[in-house]
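Late entry, evening session. Most of the bench is empty. Finally got around to the prediction I had been postponing all week. Sequence below, unchanged from the version circulated by S.P.
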Amino acid sequence: MPTRSIAALFLLALLAYGAVAAWPLLTGPQIAIHSPNEETLEDGHAYIEGRALHTKTLWLNGAPLLMDESGNFSAFITLPSGGAILSLTATDRFGREITERRSVFVN
């Protein structure tokens, strides 16, 4: 009887480990933009920074954006006067895609 209990406990632990290891595969890509946060820029210069998780490629307004090993990214761009929408698109290795947008206004 103790052998069955040990085997069941081992199997339960193995299933729990598999669920934790598979979680990134199930959730898809994620983007967290730290700045800018829908604000008004005086000089037209915007510093964009954030973190992308479970991501193979990252694009900012259609241009590739580099990430470090942890998924952190940053970019410094100049925007024209008026309103602008910053669009970040992340794609994972399975082709799933997510897009996050921020609106900024330049005086």
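Two things to note before I forget:
The helical segments are 2-27.
The longest strand covers residues 82-91.
Will write this up properly tomorrow.
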